[in-house]
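Long-time lurker. I teach an intro course on protein structure, and each term I like to show students one example going from raw sequence to a predicted 3D structure in token notation. This year I'd like something fresh instead of my usual example. Would anyone be willing to generate the tokens for the chain below so I can use it in lecture? Attribution to the forum is fine with me.
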Amino acid sequence: MMKYRAWFQCIKGCSGKHELSEIIYRCPKCNNLLEVVHDMELLKQRSTAEWKELFDTRYKRSSWPYGSSVWGKKELVCPNVENENIVSAYEGGSNLFWAERLGREVGAPDLWIKQCGNNHTGSFKDLGITVLVSMVKQMIADGQKINAVACASTGDTSASLAAYCAMAGIQAIVFLPKHKVSNAQLIQPLANGALTVSLETDFDGCMKMVQKICSENNIYLANSMNSLRIEGQKTISIELLQQFDWKVPDVIIVPGGNLGNISAIGKGFLMMRELGFIDSLPNLICAQAQIANPLYLSYLNGFNEFHSVKAEKTAASAIQIGDPVSRDKAIKILKQFNGKVEQASEDELANAAAKADRTGLLNCPHTGVALAVLLKLIKRGEISQEHKVVVISTANGLKFADFQLRYHESRLPDVTSHYANLPVELPAEYEIVKNTILEKLEHSF
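-- Reply from a regular --
Happy to contribute to a lecture. Here you go:
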């Protein structure tokens, strides 16, 4: 049986390889981030037809651990982990929702929403955390001493890390900005036994703290600057191709905060092209909240400069990040794809999410950012009716019920709620109820 290999290497091309079991996050020569590099020549010894057959045979089946859509691509993700050390909730395989009604209404009938919020803890973060926690479990099994695994989070990463560490019997520590995550996100790490540290700062402040804590206390860092996360998240691209019968969509719109996901999705498509699965790349677009938009500002100057910003409070709290750690990876990917960055205001993101909800979805505010950017690109003629478009929905809308309720009660700052829909309170009298319903129905269409 072939022994596939992967290792850490500097994203800027510095010489030197580092084992995936080494606790290292940055290049020791230039301090840039690392990435996981695979032995592509070894992977190419299996034909694309053989890979496709293997992936399709494993997809959503019950043979451990390959029913997971991440571990079903194990050889391309993290071959260094033994199967007995894999920590998985059968993540991936999320619904690719044909948003036919919404697409018709906005002028993009071939519109699809990749529902990454259908994962175990309700967000795409599970795809990367399964790889990272599995590698930590492997390292512990091999005799390394790791006291705990920690992350800074705006909510979803903490939920995912807490759950997967609980499965593995490893202590999780999560740093959250106080009063800046939803209750549904906060309860997840609490319920799963994570040591939850609520700091009076924003995400960027939490990120600085967790890096210092990890570097000085033998605690493993789980944020997306750790490129093991990227390996799991890149399977979004592979899975999309699999769900589209290995055909490349025209446009993919990804919400961007810490910028790990846009980097991962780009990496997945590049890997598929190098292995011969595809011969073209999609138009890759990163969507940012207007008041947390450092990548957008860098895009305006051709990525010649990048300056962090003070991220203002946005309804899209998971991407309220002004100093993203994966910016260099994201810029590198966007340049390779000739990609774009666009932004959305609070009013635009909230109403785009609500408009889509009216067609059967239930969107988190971050998906609302991507949907708002979609509407802008359609209006500018950059997306047409002929384009196959995928919007990456990053989290389950139920985790943000407070956002939706405040929208319908017209309590979101800087938002005019065009699609507000509140209960009609009536006495329990038949004639009043009947007449009100008939009147509402008369004016509904």
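Some talking points for your students: The two ends are 63 Å apart (CA to CA). The first strand starts at residue 6 and ends at 10.
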